[in-house]
């Protein structure tokens, strides 16, 4: 059952049990830092373990976790998850395998990305790509939540829906194909009611778990990005600098995502007005991969998606993604993932 907007706002602003624990912990440390260690030693360890709470004083050494997709998207075919960032959570640096979109709903939030500190305000949307070290801290009544998006299906599900020359497409092409670190993109949407309403709709849809919610969320996220670009493409902050080839490479990658089943190197080079040798060099220098490696990755990403989300047979999936031979498909899949398509399907079903 879906929440009303009033119910959602009550949910987002109220303190749950875990947030109340963190707030009490924070205030206790602020009140008497000298006896805080002893205070922590007397905490209810069972409650901490059951709720997966982070108390640095009870850990030996630093904690800098790497979060894999399977830790969050365990037994679901969903590409998107949303959750509230708990206020007063002790700050810790971490990185993960998936995309994170940090949305400041009300107030401020401090985030550090690859050592660079930012203070985000109401309406700021910060996109943090995979394998980027970052941390978030909120130590007042401000509210923020995260949208998590699978990296493994991002390319096949979302990337190709973006206009090639948009700021988002350039950003995602950079992080998906160049694999550089320290990237981020911040939209400063301020008090734009349209963006706020769309964020509320996304979260309400996610909490409702109604029929076809998975499809709704995918479509709503694409619409959300389109709204950000329409209304706030000039309100972007990013560490990336545009290069002269950026637009054309992004356009090429979008083209490959749309025509991967049958596209060839010579046909694509001709389509964009390049010689084959120059086109091959451009692709390799811009993405770090050859043309054939990019096509292979797109095909296998689509195959993984079909294995997780459908009951299609291996030959049907092979034909769907553009492999001429089921044997070639099976061989390539096993070499890439270390398991057969059937084993991959069983593992992800589990």
Describe this structure in words.
It is a single chain. With 350 residues, this protein is α+β, with helices and mostly antiparallel strands. It has 16 helices and eleven strands. The protein has a six-stranded antiparallel sheet with strand order 2-9-4-7-10-11, with helices on one face. A three-stranded antiparallel sheet has the order 6-5-8, with no helix packed on it. Strands 1-3 form a two-stranded parallel ribbon. The longest helix has 20 residues. The two termini are 27 Å apart. About 2% of the residues have low confidence.
Question: In brief, what are we looking at here?
Answer:
This protein has 350 residues and is α+β, with helices and mostly antiparallel strands.
Write the SSE topology.
Layout: H1 5-13, H2 17-31, H3 36-41, H4 45-50, E1 66-67, H5 69-72, E2 80-84, E3 95-96, E4 99-106, E5 108-113, E6 116-121, E7 124-128, E8 134-137, E9 143-149, H6 154-157, H7 167-177, E10 185-188, H8 193-208, H9 213-232, E11 236-238, H10 246-259, H11 265-271, H12 276-287, H13 291-309, H14 314-321, H15 326-337, H16 341-349
Parallel strand pairs: 1-3
Antiparallel strand pairs: 2-9, 4-7, 4-9, 5-6, 5-8, 7-10, 10-11
């Amino acid at each position: 059952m879906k929440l009303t907007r009033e119910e959602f706002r009550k949910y987002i602003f109220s303190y749950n049990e875990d947030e109340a624990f963190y707030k009490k912990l924070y205030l206790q440390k602020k009140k008497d830092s000298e006896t805080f260690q002893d205070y922590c030693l007397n905490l209810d360890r069972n409650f901490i373990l059951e709720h997966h709470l982070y108390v640095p004083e009870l850990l030996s050494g630093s904690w800098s976790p790497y979060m894999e997709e399977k830790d969050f998207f365990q037994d679901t075919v969903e590409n998107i998850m949303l959750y509230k960032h708990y206020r007063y959570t002790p700050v810790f640096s971490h990185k993960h395998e998936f995309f994170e979109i940090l949305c400041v709903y009300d107030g401020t939030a401090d985030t550090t990305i690859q050592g660079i500190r930012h203070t985000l305000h109401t309406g700021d949307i910060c996109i943090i790509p995979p394998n980027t070290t970052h941390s978030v801290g909120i130590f007042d009544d401000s509210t923020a939540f995260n949208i998590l998006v699978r990296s493994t299906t991002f390319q096949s599900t979302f990337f190709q829906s973006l206009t090639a020359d948009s700021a988002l497409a350039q950003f995602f092409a950079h992080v998906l194909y160049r694999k550089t670190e320290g990237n981020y993109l911040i939209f400063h949407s301020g008090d734009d009611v349209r963006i706020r309403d769309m964020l509320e709709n996304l979260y309400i849809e996610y909490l409702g778990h109604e029929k076809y919610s998975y499809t709704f969320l995918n479509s709503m996220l694409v619409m959300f990005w389109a709204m950000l670009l329409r209304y706030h493409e000039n309100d972007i902050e990013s560490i990336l600098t545009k290069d002269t080839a950026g637009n054309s490479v992004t356009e090429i990658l979008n083209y490959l995502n749309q025509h991967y089943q049958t596209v060839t190197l010579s046909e694509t080079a001709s389509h964009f007005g390049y010689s084959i040798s120059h086109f091959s060099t451009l692709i390799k220098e811009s993405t770090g991969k050859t043309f054939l490696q990019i096509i292979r990755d797109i095909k296998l990403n689509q195959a993984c998606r079909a294995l997780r989300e459908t009951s299609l047979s291996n030959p049907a999936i092979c034909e769907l993604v553009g492999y001429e031979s089921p044997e070639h498909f099976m061989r390539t899949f096993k070499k890439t993932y270390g398991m057969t398509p059937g084993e991959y399907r069983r593992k992800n079903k589990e």
